Amino acid sequence: MLTESAKLIFKTDRDKALELVDEAGTEARRIEVSDPALPRALIAVAYAVNAIDRERVWDATFDAVKAANSRKGLRAKTARW
Predict the structure, then answer these.
(1) pLDDT digits (tens, 9 = 90+) for 41-53
(2) How far apart are CA 9 and CA 78, in angstroms?
(3) Among candidate residues 77, 75, 10, 64, the one with its CA nearest the CA of residue 33
(4) DSSP three-state, residue 44
(5) Residue 32 and residue 44: Cα distance in Å, rounded?
(6) Cα–Cα distance, 10 to 65 (Å, whole number)
(7) What is the DSSP string of 9-33?
(8) In terms of Cα–Cα distance, which of 54, 57, 60 is closest to 42?
(9) Which residue among 10, 17, 31, 38 is least packed, with the fewest CB closer than 10 Å?
(10) What is the spatial distance between Cα 1 and Cα 61, in angstroms, rounded to a whole number?
């Protein structure tokens, strides 16, 4: 919800959009590492960052990949994003 809101308002209020993305990242990191929702949430954050601030997209993508790789039993064939 936060990332979608950020993408909607970034053209009119970039600072608020970045604030929402940061808040979404903070909320995502509260999810248990073993929960499959964590990588999905961080991918959503990375996607929003890509639309708003391309300079930060690699950091956000790294966080999402790191979360996905830390999941035990995650396999590319069975992963659902």
Answers:
(1) 999 999 999 999 8
(2) 34
(3) 64
(4) helix
(5) 16
(6) 25
(7) HTTT-HHHHHHHHHHHHHHHTTS-T
(8) 60
(9) 31
(10) 19
